[in-house]
Design goal:
The complex is a heterodimer.
Chain A (H helix, E strand, L loop, with lengths): L1 H10 L11 H33 L27 H39 L3 E9 L2 E5 L5 E2 L2 E4 L3 E8 L4 E5 L4 E5 L5 E6 L5 E6 L11 E7 L1 H11 L12 H12 L2
Parallel strand pairs in A: 1-5, 4-10
Antiparallel strand pairs in A: 1-2, 2-3, 5-8, 6-7, 6-9, 9-10
Helix pairs in contact in A: 1-3, 2-3
Chain B lengths: L1 H5 L10 H6 L3 H29 L10 H36 L7 H21 L25 H30 L12 H32 L10 H36 L6 H14 L15 H28 L9 H24 L1 H7 L3 H30 L5 H24 L15 H31 L30 E3 L6 E3 L1 H12 L11 H8 L8 H9 L12 H17 L6 H22 L20 H31 L15 H25 L3 H30 L16 H32 L8 H26 L1
Antiparallel strand pairs in B: 1-2
The chains are: A alpha+beta, B mainly alpha.
């Protein structure tokens, strides 16, 4: 199954580093299809509903089915006919929904299994450990360097291992379509590939206390060379620029706000 | 009607304030529920307005962080718990007995209790705002933010306790409605013939019975973490434990909220299109499927928590599976319009509006069913927009209900123009409020410092929110005005309505029906009471029952299939008068008991701070004791129906069925506790667990207690045997023995606990107390909950012994039997707890 899932996704045009299709692309392509079909189905069904509501509006002089015996007070319930039509539309809607889900299931397998496959293929992967706390994020690199700004090279698979120091948080970078729960006492994983050197903001997506609204972190996507240079300069020291470069400000704001 | 007053009953008229405090009549309680729920709608709505003001610009900070989080949390909790379901249950209370042909609910005083517990739990919630701030962890209350370590204000604890009280109200209501609907239907009205609204409520209360029990387990544990210092949600695995418990409740809750609206929509579609519901049978079957499946989809709220691919796949499948029955229901409603004669009255407009909103909510829900999309939608406004389209879409169906039944409940017609105006502003406001949230979906949920680029969409939403809010001014004005000056209506203002509530006057008389409602002839008719009683008696008088036409109770007893079980009281009543017996409608005790509960819970919320709060707790406890004794002593008579359709519980009296239902929910409660224990034990290492338990925690006290409880169960059986043999002393002695054994159980437990509290071993130098570690927390809390059940049982025995001394159970041993059911259940629970906590 995993292989076929990967294969299915691979049929679509590949982009990103080393033929890795980023989750952002996967998400966007599925989202567009859902949005298109959803709008179409919604419009058709609602239009049909309104059409019937209008067509069979009450008119004193015109009964659309004069022979029909209408419901009477105190009768025991029974079904109105049209069962065949009901099942036809039900079947149709079920087919649409099921095929959409089956289709996306392949991409789910792709997203779930890609990091392991990439590791097997020997693709270069950057592992970053993410720790949430009230109210900021720490990023720890394989060399032990810890910082409050997530710096990653463009066009490389980044594998995040996410956890929390205190309460339930959720780490997400919306533009890169990466998101993972940060749960105290356990880790979760998520991965992404950033294509262009630019800056993003990571947010917390789970209500975690007073500072939740301000709990964000800078994400800097760098040219690979620039990244390597920066990474070499960190030299595994956790001291310089640690803890919460970005979190500091909001942190003190909050402490102030917390005072009576 | 005048008959009631002739009996000299001190049941005050509706204009009297006293009436509303003492009433137990289902129609009064229905009105109380409706009015109270609308009050909480205003409160929750006001909080939403505050949020929308704050969200006007990401740069504004009107409320401040703390207040915004409180507003978000309280808005969610109040709307989901204190508004939507109680609003639906206002209609359920008023309409269901009328629809199924019952005089009242099976347990009218319990119904009043349920209402007052609901009201006071809401008041408790309101008090929390003034205790250093209310709960601020979102309506999902994720752990461990929900414990005092992270939320030290007393108000946070109060909300947990308010929720516990609310769940108590819900459980009483569920037991009551289930018993009523299974046991008190009009002759000839089979379960499958229940009108759509009644059917939807039936399925709702089934889901409530079990889902809310799981929530109760979660809340009691959370309350213990707050009050007793247990460490469930701060230990390893505690965070996920909460999400499992909460969503096991939380997903059925979505349907609990939506089903009543669906029932009302089905009723309104039938009435105002003049067409019978298309595929009714399949519609009902689809609802049953949803109700069952709702308990196996909860992990789709947890796709990002690190659960493995197999489980994700499984829950994706169940989730998509549960969406399909709704397709069928939507199409059924649409096709019902075809060839109809559709009158666009206010209730129909709201029903149609609800259908359209639900279509949008349903389609956007399919997006969330695709796991890859769900990953990114998690925690964003897509989710907010989707569930508001579904849940507030459901509320739209409930507003259809208030217009639909307003003439029945008040006897007057609402103003149609104002009703349509309400709908127009409501519908426009709704879509302006929630649709932009889909567009601005990248906004993180519960965040006010969102990306500035999205602010124009949030401003549209804010404008929509205010339009939606203002539309309710139109509704309230309309309803107030129409109660006073609306056009008077007859029994049935709606052409093509079919259900029984439209066959009685508006508003209906206290006893509901002009005769005994019956569907025997294939159509609703009202039969003369005596004739019906005689018929009902004759048809089931196999055991030679005294089918005397003049004694309704006698044949009533026969009709229930347990001829010998006619209660002593009812026998007396039927001797005293040859007339059909009257029912009581007034009792002070429900409000007293629930007020006591309010005081006690308020006290418990602050016991960590001592002082004043101890006093409140004590006062509440004493008043509750007085209230319960008062209620038990009160002569309150509710006749069971003389003839009724009771399949499949024909041979089970109301009380017994009620007890079964209650124990059913109790099974889930203990299931929640045992499941939590197992979950945490696995999370902490099954074997490692032994290191968390001192050497002194030995098997012997548990084993001893197992013997004590088993013997006591045997003693209860002896009491029943003695009652059959009409041995008064035997009953008293057996009950006394049960009591002594129960007390022995508790004494043994007390000795064991005291010893463990004060041990001084190397591993546990400061004793093994409640909060020492996760093992001690689970041990004390789970066995403590069981111990509390034992204590309740012992109190019941204390009440029963003096009655047994007077010979109360010799003629009618049903009370003994119900107690026995409870007691055996408590014993069986122990048989599970003993190996789990002492041996494994």
């Amino acid at each position: 199954m995993p292989v076929s899932g990967g294969g299915l996704a691979a049929e679509v045009a590949l982009a990103g580093a080393g033929g890795i299709r980023a989750p952002a692309e996967v998400f966007n392509s599925i989202f567009v299809v859902f949005l298109g079909l959803g709008t179409l189905v919604g419009t058709v069904v609602i239009a049909y509903t309104l059409y019937n509501a209008y067509k069979y509006r009450y008119r004193e002089d015109r009964d659309p089915a004069p022979d029909l015996d209408r419901p009477e007070l105190g009768e025991l319930p029974e079904s109105g006919g049209k069962g065949k039509k009901l099942f036809l539309s039900f079947g149709l809607s079920a087919v649409i929904v099921l095929s959409l889900i089956v289709w996306t299931y392949g991409t789910l397998l792709y997203v779930e299994n890609r990091p392991a496959e990439a590791a097997q293929e020997g693709t270069e992967i950057l592992d970053v450990h993410v720790e949430g706390y009230q109210f900021g994020w720490n990023f720890t690199y394989p060399n032990g360097h810890t910082t409050g700004t997530l710096r990653v090279p463009a066009n490389r698979m980044v594998n995040l291992t996410v956890t929390s120091r205190d309460v339930f948080h959720n780490f997400g970078i919306p533009e890169l379509r990466v998101k993972s729960d940060a749960i105290p006492g356990q880790t979760t994983n998520a991965w992404f590939v950033a294509e262009e050197p630019t800056e993003y903001t990571a947010n917390c997506y789970e209500l975690c206390g007073r500072g939740h609204s301000y709990m964000d972190a800078e994400v800097v996507v760098m040219e690979p060379e620039a990244f390597e240079e920066w990474y070499a300069s960190t030299n595994g020291t956790a001291a310089n620029g640690t803890a919460s470069e970005s979190g500091d400000e909001s942190h003190s704001d909050l402490e102030e706000a917390a005072r009576p | 009607m005048s008959h009631e007053h002739d009996h000299g009953h001190d049941f005050p008229p509706m204009s009297s304030v006293k009436r509303w405090f003492v009433t137990t009549n289902h129609k009064d309680i229905g009105i109380l529920y409706t009015v109270t729920a609308l009050f909480f709608l205003l409160l929750g709505g006001a909080l939403a307005m505050l949020m929308r003001v704050q969200l006007w610009s990401p740069l504004w900070n009107v409320l401040g962080e703390g207040a915004y989080n409180q507003a978000v949390s309280a808005h969610g909790l109040l709307m989901v718990f204190w508004f939507i379901s109680p609003f639906a249950f206002g209609f359920a209370n008023y309409i269901i007995p009328l629809q199924i042909g019952a005089d009242d609910l099976a347990f009218p005083r319990l119904n009043a209790m349920s209402y007052w517990a609901y009201l006071f739990s809401g008041l408790l919630f309101i008090v929390s705002f003034f205790q250093g701030g209310s709960f601020s962890g979102g309506w999902t209350m994720y752990a461990p933010l929900n414990v005092p370590t992270f939320m030290p204000n007393v108000g946070g604890t109060t909300v947990v306790l308010a929720l516990i009280m609310f769940v108590a109200a819900v459980t009483m209501g569920s037991v009551n409605f289930l018993t009523t609907m299974y046991r008190m239907r009009a002759e000839g009205l089979r379960m499958r013939d229940l009108p759509m609204f009644s059917m939807s409520i039936l399925l709702t209360v089934w889901m409530m019975l079990f889902a809310f029990a799981a929530l109760l387990a979660a809340l009691i544990i959370l309350g213990a973490d707050h009050v007793f210092g247990t460490t469930y949600f701060t230990s390893d695995g505690g965070t996920l434990l909460w999400t499992h418990l909460f969503w096991f409740f939380g997903h059925p809750e979505v349907y609990i909220v939506f089903f009543p609206a669906l029932g009302i929509m089905a009723e309104c579609f039938q009435t105002f299109t003049g067409q019978r519901l298309v595929g009714r049978k399949w519609f009902v079957l689809a609802m049953v499927l949803v109700a069952l499946q709702s308990f196996v989809v909860w992990m789709h709220h947890m796709f990002l928590t690190g659960i493995n691919l197999e489980i994700k796949t499984l829950f994706m499948v169940t989730t998509i599976g549960i969406s399909l029955p709704f397709d069928l229901m939507v199409f059924s409603l649409i096709y019902t319009m075809i060839k109809g004669r559709i009158r666009f009255t206010t209730p129909f407009l709201f029903s149609l509006g609800a259908l359209i909103l639900f279509i949008v909510g349903g389609i956007t829900g399919v997006f969330l069913g695709a796991v890859v999309l769900d990953y990114e939608f998690r925690g964003t406004y897509w989710v907010v927009a989707h569930f508001h389209y579904v849940m507030v879409g459901g509320a739209t169906g409930l507003f259809a209900g208030i217009y639909y039944w307003f003439p029945k409940m008040t006897g007057r017609m609402y103003d149609e123009f104002l009703g349509k105006l309400h709908f127009a502003t409501y519908f426009v406001g709704f879509n302006l409020l929630y649709f932009p949230m889909f567009v601005a979906w990248e906004t993180p949920r519960r965040v006010f410092a969102y990306a500035p680029g999205l602010s124009s969409w949030h401003q549209v939403a804010t404008v929509g929110g205010f339009i939606l809010g203002l539309s309710f001014l139109v509704m309230f004005y309309n309803l107030f005005k129409s109660i006073a000056t609306g056009e008077e209506v007859g029994d049935n203002p709606w052409e093509y309505s079919t259900t029984a509530e439209w066959a009685v006057s508006s508003p209906p008389p206290l006893e509901n029906f002009p005769g005994v409602p019956s569907y025997e002839g294939g159509k609703l008719s009202f039969r003369d009471e005596h004739e019906a009683a005689a018929d009902g008696g004759a048809s089931t008088a196999a055991d030679g029952g005294t089918a005397d036409a003049s004694t309704a109770t006698g044949s009533g007893g026969v009709a229930t299939g347990g001829g010998a079980l006619a209660t002593a009281e009812s026998a007396l009543a039927s001797q005293a008068t040859a007339e059909p017996e009257h029912a009581d409608h007034a009792s002070y005790w429900p409000v007293v008991v629930c007020f006591a509960g309010f005081l006690a819970f308020l006290g418990i919320s602050g016991v960590r701070n001592g002082g004043f709060y101890y006093g409140l707790t004590a006062a509440g406890g004493v008043l509750a004791a007085v209230g319960f004794v008062g209620m038990a002593q009160e002569s309150f008579h509710v006749p069971e129906p003389t003839v009724a359709e009771q399949w499949p519980f024909g041979g089970v009296e109301n009380m017994k069925l009620g007890m079964w239902m209650f124990l059913g929910s109790d099974v889930v409660l203990f299931g929640g506790f045992i499941g939590s224990y197992l979950f945490l034990r696995v999370a902490n290492g099954w074997q490692h667990w032994h290191h968390l338990i001192p050497e002194d925690h030995v098997v012997l006290p548990g084993l001893l207690n197992t013997y004590l409880l088993l013997t006591s169960s045997f003693a209860v059986v002896l009491a029943l045997v003695a009652a059959h043999k009409r041995s008064r002393l035997g009953v008293v002695a057996s009950l006394g023995l049960t009591w002594v054994l129960g007390v022995g159980f508790l004494a043994n437990k007390a000795i064991e606990w005291l010893h463990l509290f004060h041990i001084h071993s190397e591993a546990f130098p400061n004793g093994w107390e409640v909060g020492t570690n996760v093992a001690s927390s689970t041990f004390y809390l789970t066995t403590g909950l069981h111990g509390a059940h034992v204590i309740v049982g012992l109190i019941m025995i204390l009440y029963m012994i003096p009655r047994a001394w007077k010979g109360a159970y010799l003629d009618d041993d049903s009370s003994l039997e119900y107690f026995g059911l409870y007691w055996h259940f408590v014993d069986i629970v122990w048989l599970f707890l003993f190996p789990l906590f002492y041996i494994l």
